[in-house]
Design brief:
- With 186 residues, the chain is mostly beta strands.
- It has one helix and 16 strands.
- Strand 2 and strand 3 form a beta hairpin.
C-alpha cells in the first residue's frame, strides 16, 4: 500500500482494477477542512489521462512493477527498440509507452524499462543526460552565464533554453525531469 504522503511522479498504482501511472500530484490545503491531494493519472493500457482528488491519508494499492536496465538502440516510424544487456533480446516499445523520455534518448544510452509482468509500461531515465547542441543562435562577445537565455535544439530534437554563451556543437547536461539546462560539459 502507498499513502498520499508517499506519492511520487512515475509511481504505479492500481485503482478500480486499472493500472495507472502518476504523472503529477499536488497537495491542497483549504482554510477549513482536511487537506486533499489532486492526482493526474495516466491509464497505462489506454493512454487516457484523468485527474482525481483524494483526502490526505488515502491509501492505494501499489502496482508490482519491475525495472530492467536496457540499452536504447534506435527508433523507426512505429517503435523505439531497446536491448536487454543480459540476453541481448531486442524489445520494441511503442512511442506512447516511451512518452517524453524519447526526447532525451540517443543511441546506446542506458535507461530502465518499467514492466508490469512482461508488459512494458514506461521508460525511466537517469536524472540527467548529456546532449549535443545542433542548432542555436550565435553568442556574442560580452554574453554572460547570468545574462539571459536563448532556445537551442539538441541532437534528439529536444528544444530547451540555454545561456547565451552556449554555441552549436557544445555538449551540455540536461535535467530529464524538468527539461532544463544544468551545465556545459567538457
Amino acid at each position: 500500500m502507498i499513502s498520499t504522503g508517499e506519492l511520487k511522479k512515475g509511481a504505479s498504482i492500481e485503482l478500480d482494477g486499472k493500472l495507472y501511472l502518476i504523472m503529477d500530484y499536488s497537495h491542497i490545503k483549504t482554510g477549513r477542512g482536511s487537506a486533499q491531494v489532486r492526482i493526474k493519472l495516466r491509464d497505462v493500457r489506454t493512454g487516457s489521462t484523468i485527474e482525481q482528488t483524494f483526502q490526505a491519508g488515502t491509501k492505494f494499492t501499489r502496482a508490482r512493477v519491475e525495472r530492467r536496465e536496457m540499452q536504447y538502440l534506435y527508433k523507426d516510424d512505429q517503435f523505439h527498440y531497446f536491448m536487454n544487456n543480459e540476453n541481448f533480446e531486442q524489445i520494441p516499445v511503442t512511442a506512447d509507452k516511451v512518452g517524453d523520455a524519447g526526447k532525451y534518448l540517443k543511441e546506446n544510452d542506458t535507461c530502465e524499462l518499467v514492466l508490469y509482468g512482461e508488459e512494458v509500461i514506461g521508460v525511466e531515465l537517469p536524472a540527467s543526460v548529456e546532449l549535443v547542441v545542433v542548432e542555436t543562435d550565435p553568442g556574442f562577445k560580452g554574453d554572460t552565464a547570468t545574462g539571459g537565455s536563448k532556445p537551442a535544439t539538441m541532437e534528439t530534437g529536444l528544444v530547451i533554453n540555454v545561456p547565451l554563451f552556449i554555441e552549436a556543437g557544445a555538449k551540455i547536461k540536461v535535467n530529464t525531469d524538468s527539461g532544463t539546462y544544468i551545465e556545459r560539459v567538457g
